[in-house]
Amino acid sequence: MEKEKIVLFSEPLETTSKELSPFLEKHGIRLIKVDSLKETLLTLQEGRVDALVIDAALLEDDCGFISVIKGIEKDLPVIICAESNTPELESKIRQQKIFYYHIKSFGIDDLEMAVSNAINGLSQ
To answer: Which residues pair with 53 in a beta bridge?
Structure first.
């Protein structure tokens, strides 16, 4: 029997996770939703997840939170979702060795592919 795949979704409003829910359900992937960085850390400490999706709005200008996560779960694929893109923000985030940087205007299909690749251990 294959182990259950779990995606932790950290966003202030449940907009992107709601859009992604049908895809996750279809593929038998469990979704855990939290709305703060503190809850993200607590959830990661409680148990295993296969991928983490964080809304860039939670990070504000401090991308150091990603380093904290990498300290806890070195190999955890981290996907960052940003409403809009600036070269400065993208550069700061990519320096943290994330798995994927998703711009929401690219559409949900792009995020579905990234999540699928992340939980199946494929590199981007």
So the answer is: 9, 79
